[in-house]
Amino acid sequence: xxNQKLVIQKNQDFELxxxxxxxxxxxWNKENDESYTGVxxxxxxxxxxxDKNIYFRGTLNxxxxxxxxxxxxxxxxxxxxxxxLSKIDEYMETxxxxxxxxxxxxxxxxxxxxxxxxxxxNNIPRIKGIIExxxxxxxTKITFxxxxxxxxxxxxxxxxxxxxxxxxxxxxxxxxxxxETTHMILNNEIDLNELHKMDTKSAREQLLKLSGVxxxxxxxxxxxxxxxxxxxFPIDVWVRxxxxxxxxxxxxxxxxxxxxINQIAFDKFGELAGIAQQYLFYWKRxx
DNA sequence: CTGCAGGCCGGCG
DNA sequence: CGCCGGCCTGCA
Length: 287
What we know:
By secondary structure, the protein is of the alpha+beta class. About 50% of the residues lie in helices and about 15% in strands. The strands form two sheets. A five-stranded antiparallel sheet has the order 1-5-4-3-2, with helices on one face. The protein has a two-stranded antiparallel ribbon with strand order 6-7.
């Protein structure tokens, strides 16, 4: 671990609030100076913006430029994506104007799996609290600028943790799911490295075998982790609401099947359905 | 005090 | 298959 700094030019496709509040991540916190500090797999990172630049500093075990480039998806042209989607209809145009600085992060696959299992039937403050306690109790401690932080625990670090101990940090009924999934991964029943090489359909089937991973959680993992499948359209209550309001116009609030929503999304947004979902979700939830 | 939050699981028809 | 009840916990 060593302290590193990096400054890059900012453009209209990068806004900290949009990135960290659009619902894809749980471990970034706002500081008093409007910067954000997060723990990512490699260490601690602080990000601050002004009109012209983005300032990164952190303690990491790899080159900061390489990490930032990968994590913030900096090699992708979001201007082009937004232009394509904006042309589809006025709803997309509105939601993109609102969340114009969103970027889909490349988050560690293991951490994303566990985090979204925890997210099931749960609320964000509690999800963040559970993940923080999990890291504090079982993750590796690192110090950055006189503060202590804890890396997300590895599968190995959770190997001897019992169901009761998981329950003890507030997981509720998700305790057994975390336990089972951890051991399925430790036993190589699901090979996380192999998932990256698979086509989307096969990767999704594999994820669905994990305990606590259903359709919605699997889709979040496919979109928000290093798997990075942009054509995947996770459907949660908010997306259901916004799709119902804008496209299905179902006045009696009858529950529309996931299959139908997926089909509408694919017909409208095609290969960019995942990122379209993010703009719609963020806009709907904040307005 | 109920209701409910970024669903999943298991049982049933 | 699709549908439905139940579920830890904490906060409004």
